[in-house]
Amino acid sequence: MEVINGFKKLPQISNFSIITIGNFDGIHLGHQKILDFLAEKAKKYSLLSLILTFSPHPEKILGKKRTKMIQTLDQRVKELNKYNIKACLIVPFDDKFSSLSSQDFIQQIVLNTLKAKMVIVGENFHFGKNREGDISQLHRLASQFNFQVFSIPSVTIEGKTVSSSLVRSFLREGKIEKVYTLLGRSYEIEGKVIRGKSRGKALGFPTANIETENEIVPPGVFITTAWLKSKKFHSMTNVGIRPTFNQQETNIESYIINFNKNLYGEKIRINFIKKIRDEIKFKTSEDLSRQIKKDLETTKLYFKLK
């Protein structure tokens, strides 16, 4: 998949295209349904398949509250690359772009610039200034300007609509297994190993302290896997404020089982598999150490390790 950053780098499109439009934060099951449909129709009708997405998230520019992203932009692009789609256009979302009316957005961007003959979106799709455009208007514009619209129904699980906002909610609550059901895969963060305060080492459990650009990291103690240079390791990860030591800032610490190499400065990916418990404040560091041993036993049992 070709990644194009902004309209200035977009090459002239000569053939007609089939496009989907959205933020695609998290690439959850609803997004996946749209992307699969796009790839299928592009192949059937021999059209250029194109994803139109935005960075930053429109709500970061327009919203009263700052939306925290499920993925970094790099993670989103890597996940989108798994689908059989030709190109991804990342549009810098700013005040000027947000001022386009819904009709101007369709005429100037979707039709004139991207040469779309088919547009595939979710059923709750909104577009244009102040989100004034909806599916009904999109269908009217399609009749007026001779292009096709496919509105893909939402995916529901246990009576709830799968959405990025629901994923964010579950992540904030540390409900990582529920997140898995919405994404169809484990939640992942990536970052760099940095020097910590060596408290884990003092307790007998040297950990990799992780600095990440991921904006949402689920709180608690988790069974995880760690990826280092494409190699997978069993691990246990704690995300929290270390209440036993009266800290305030959030820390991410991974204990990689049967691993004792120096990782400072290394890139690392962490996949969250199962939650063990919430973070607890212990009376003494000895109590904390005993609990970590129990957590490690739980982790080893999960991985069937001795």
What would you note in describing this structure?
The structure is a single chain. It contains 10 helices and 14 strands. Strand 11 and strand 12 form a beta hairpin. The radius of gyration is 22 Å and the shape is elongated. The strands form 3 sheets. The chain has a 6-stranded parallel beta sheet, sandwiched between helices. Strands 9-10-13-12-11-14 form a 6-stranded antiparallel barrel. It has a two-stranded antiparallel sheet with strand order 7-8. 32% of the residues lie in helices and 29% in strands. It is an alpha/beta fold and 306 residues long.
Question: What secondary-structure arrangement, pairings included, does this model have?
Answer:
Blueprint: E1 2-5, E2 17-21, H1 29-45, E3 48-55, H2 58-62, H3 73-80, E4 87-92, H4 95-98, H5 102-113, E5 116-122, H6 135-145, E6 148-152, E7 156-157, E8 160-161, H7 164-172, H8 176-183, E9 187-194, H9 199-202, E10 208-212, E11 220-228, E12 231-240, E13 251-256, E14 267-277, H10 285-303
Parallel strand pairs: 1-4, 2-3, 2-5, 3-4, 5-6
Antiparallel strand pairs: 7-8, 9-10, 9-14, 10-13, 11-12, 11-14, 12-13
